[in-house]
């Protein structure tokens, strides 16, 4: 498992268009529940000219944030840029220059065995000259993982590729939209993607293969309004956590609060985690603080470490 809180601090990841001129006011006026992370995407650009225009707008956004932060204190989320291709990385470095110091990481779409080496090479090049590290968030293409004959070999090949750049892999993102589209599946507000067998199996295989070394963020939940959406999202996040995911892509700012509340650490878990990590109790199994379950350091050590790291970012709640 990862032993630094940075890997657990992506949390609720909200996407916005790179040419969104209004997002700067949303950040500066702190209109969204915090903490959260923000990803700038160029998916709306249909050609090079539109992409170039969006890049210019994003430069102004980052520059204004940089200047405003010097003038007064306000919360700036972790900022990410979803690149268009492997070649886009070098292009952004040349165009954005030192402004990339404000960027926590690049989201690498359609990350695969065939392009992993190029992605990693390009990131190594820019990280060798930047003053602060830019992490990577590989986004797995679920459609390529549908073939059961090759799935396990493919996932382990991805893992081997990432191992050469492991410390810079902040999170692995899973986008389930394409596979849901292929299966002609869309769940209701009171249903979860885990109720779809093929999707649940795929998500399980991804976590089983990669979670020993990387933090994996869960796919988005599409509902953000109407009756039952908060309950539905909350239940899906509980399943995310039970299946080994940490954090979640959100499709609307209203979802951020639900994610943050779900990942806030219950006080009983926090107290148990401290007990498990207590050097004096390291080799002893004993009842927990309210005498309801057994804490076994050899079994619960990794769980306890994760609880403490999550608490540093999301906080602790009475439970």
Summarize the structure.
The chain has eleven helices and twelve strands. It has about 325 residues and is of the alpha/beta class.
Q: Summarize the biggest pleated sheet.
A: 8 strands, parallel
CATH architecture of the largest domain: Alpha-Beta Barrel
Strand content: 5-15%
Give the ordered list of helices and strands.
EHEHEHEHEHEHHEHEHEHEEHE
Mean pLDDT: 93
Can you identify the CATH class of the largest domain? Answer: Alpha Beta
Strand order of the largest sheet: 7-6-5-4-3-2-1-8
Helical amount among residues, as a percent range? 40-55%
Radius of gyration: 20 Å
Beta strand count: 12
Q: Number of domains in the coordinates? A: 2
CATH topology of the largest domain: TIM Barrel
Using the alpha-carbon principal axes, give the shape: globular
N-to-C CA distance: 26 Å
Q: Which residues form runs of ≥5 with pLDDT under 50?
A: none
**Which homologous superfamily in CATH is the superfamily of the largest domain?**
Phosphoenolpyruvate-binding domains
Instruction: Enumerate how many helices there are, as a single number.
Output: 11
Structural class designation: alpha/beta
GO molecular function, one term: catalytic activity
Pfam families: C-C_Bond_Lyase
Protein name: ATP/GTP-binding protein
């Amino acid at each position: 498992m990862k032993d630094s809180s940075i890997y657990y601090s992506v949390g609720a990841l909200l996407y916005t268009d790179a040419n969104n001129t209004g997002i700067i006011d949303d950040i500066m006026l702190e209109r969204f529940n915090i903490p959260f992370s923000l990803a700038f995407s160029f998916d709306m650009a249909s050609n090079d000219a539109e992409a170039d225009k969006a890049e210019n707008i994003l430069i102004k956004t980052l520059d204004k944030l940089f200047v405003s932060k010097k003038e007064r204190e306000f919360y700036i989320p972790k900022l990410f840029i979803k690149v268009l291709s492997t070649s886009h990385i070098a292009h952004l470095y040349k165009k954005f220059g030192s402004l990339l110091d404000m960027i926590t990481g690049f989201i690498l779409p359609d990350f695969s065995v065939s392009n992993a080496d190029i992605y990693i090479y390009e990131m190594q090049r820019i990280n060798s000259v930047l003053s602060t590290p830019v992490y990577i968030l590989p986004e797995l293409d679920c459609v390529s993982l549908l073939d059961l004959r090759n799935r396990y070999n493919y996932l382990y090949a991805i893992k081997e590729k990432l191992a050469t750049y492991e410390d810079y892999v902040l999170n692995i993102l899973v986008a389930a939209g394409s596979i849901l589209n292929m299966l002609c599946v869309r769940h209701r507000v009171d249903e979860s993607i885990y109720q779809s067998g093929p999707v649940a199996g795929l998500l399980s295989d991804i976590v089983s293969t990669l979670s020993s070394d990387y933090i994996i963020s869960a796919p988005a939940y599409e509902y953000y309004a109407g009756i039952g959406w908060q309950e539905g999202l909350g239940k899906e996040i509980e399943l995310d956590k039970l299946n080994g995911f940490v954090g979640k892509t959100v499709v609307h700012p209203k979802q951020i609060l639900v994610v943050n509340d779900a990942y806030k650490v219950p006080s009983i878990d926090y107290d148990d985690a401290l007990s498990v990590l207590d050097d004096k109790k390291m080799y002893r199994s004993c009842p927990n603080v309210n005498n309801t379950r057994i804490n076994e350091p050899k079994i619960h050590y990794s769980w306890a470490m994760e609880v403490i790291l999550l608490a540093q970012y999301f906080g602790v709640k009475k439970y």
